[in-house]
Each structure stands twice: as structure tokens, then as C-alpha cells.
Amino acid sequence: MQKALLLNSKYGNFVVSDIPRESPGVGEVLIKVQSAALNPVDWKIQRFGYLIDGYPAVLGSDIAGDVVEVGEGVSDFQKGDRVFSQAVFKKTRGAFQQYVVASTSSLSKIPPKFSYDEVSTLPMALTTAFAGLYKDPDSGLGITPPITEEARGKYANTPIVILGGSSSVGQYVIQFAKLSGFSPIIVTASPSHTDSLLEIGASNVIDRNLSTSSLSEEIGKITSKPIHFVFDSIALAETQQTAIDIISPGGRAVVVLPAVVAPAEGKYLSKTNAGHVHPIPTFYREHLYGFLEKGFITPNRFEILPNGLAGIVEGLERLEANRVSRLKLVARPQETL
């Protein structure tokens, strides 16, 4: 048996309960969860009743911990490996429990210099950023991923605008954009985050509260080149409209929530819906460890929630109330009383 934070029913309440541990199947491992990060989608599942395949359900998408058991056919991971993974939206497979089964297709080992807490901030936000930039134009901007030496820097002297640069997704979009060579990397955010966003690769930070016309004016002061790429990591109705308005003809924007605005003639809109995005196996298995080790990607800042799994409920309330800025909330399931 183990402890888990259960959402007891659709639109229901969270409760810490004892449930059985699962055993890994073919191509799977059992992970002792040391750190589990929170995402806005977690409170949205409770509030709106989507994504999960049944109840009671264990939510949570971001897992970091130790392999304690391997399933049939697993040869590249072994007991004792420090790993992190993005969970799937199945009622028994969420991160908010002390042990979870995960597929090795979405699993990466943790470089020695990183802690469980640090890498737990990565999976969902990182996957969303990668998919939005590099997947095909139906669900991304369709640009070439920087997973080879030849592809790194490919988009030199090409501007990109990132709306919501201080969000978890936005911070990874900045880092990937830098690796792809985009310049300038123009970001909207609160002015208080300017220095930290410049440090991770932004070229220019513009106040997120400016009107669309003022934003366009500021972009025009930075570059005279057309804006063919916009990544909206907030994706509210107003930011989606802003994204459409600032794209040059022939350009494309990608949003991380369902599209609620229609693109203007000659402009294109793609959807990489956070919460529906699955890890890209080749990236997780073949490249992510190296990206971290080489410093291409830096994990988000984080805050540890008290009381293990029990502390997650208050953390989700803070996320819903928009009382979390430029950091991830992380729970440590093994500290649950």
C-alpha cells in the first residue's frame, strides 16, 4: 500500500488515502516519487471535469524519483536509477502518489548535478514548449528542432515574439528559441522579471500590460523584420487576439489552450494544448539528458510545499487564484504523514 492524493469524483474533493501500488508492465518501470510539481491543468481537471478516464483519480503530470522495479523488456533503466517523467492522464498514473508506474518512452535519467526537485519542474511545461515550437503546423510552428549541431542556430536573424515569457512554458520557449538561433527574442512579461528573462535568453522584455497597438509599436522599435513566429504561452482570448494582430502576413502563431479567435486572412494559428501534449519519445530518451547536462535547458525556480501530498491542495488553490509567479510549486510525496 501507499499514500496518494485522490480526486474522489468528477468535480469532487481531494483527499489523502491509502491505495495499492501498481506493478510495471512491459516497457514500464515503477518509480518511487521523490518530487512532484504542480501545473494549472491539475486544478482545471478538478474544476471542469476533463482529461481523466475515471474516478477516484490521481492527478499530477511532473514526476521525479527513483526506479524501484522494472517491467518486462526494459534494459536501459535499472533499479536505483534517478529519473524524471511526464505522467499520462490515467486515473492511476498521476504524480501525486508515493509510487507510480511510467512508460520508459517518456522517461529520462537525471544528470548528477540536478536534484529531484529541480527536474520535477520540467516535464509538462518543457514538452508543451518543445511541441509548440517544433511539431508540424497543425499543432506547432513547424520549425526544425535543435537536436543536431546543424539545426542549432538555424533561425539566426529571425525574430520571434513570446507572449507570457515568465510562465513555466514561456521560460522554456525562450531557452529553445535561443538554441534555435532566433534573434531578437522578444518577450512580454511583468517588468519585475526582466533581468531573469534576459539571463535565460530573451533579447528584449516588453511590459505585458501594454495594449496591442503599443506592443506593436515597441516591437517595431526593436526590429524592422516581419514577425512570422509568435508563441502564446498564456492563450487567453485577449492574448490570442494579440498574437494574431502582431503576426505579419504569412506568419504563424501557436497557442497552448484551445483557440478562441479566428486568424485573419493570410495569417495562421496552431494549437498545442497544454494538458493534451504527450512527451516526444526521441527527445526524452535521446536528447533531454544532454540538454540539461550541457546547460541548454535550465529548470525553473521552485518552492517546496509543506506536508507532502497534503500540501498540494493549498498549492492548487494558489495556482487557481493566480498567486504564483515565475516558479513551480513542488510536493514531496514521501514526506506525507
From TrEMBL:
CDD domains: enoyl_reductase_like (cd08249). One of its GO terms (molecular function) is oxidoreductase activity, acting on NAD(P)H. It comes from the Eukaryota. Gene3D superfamilies: Medium-chain alcohol dehydrogenases, catalytic domain, NAD(P)-binding Rossmann-like Domain. This is Enoyl reductase (ER) domain-containing protein. Residues 12-331 form the Enoyl reductase (ER) domain. Pfam families: ADH_N, ADH_zinc_N.
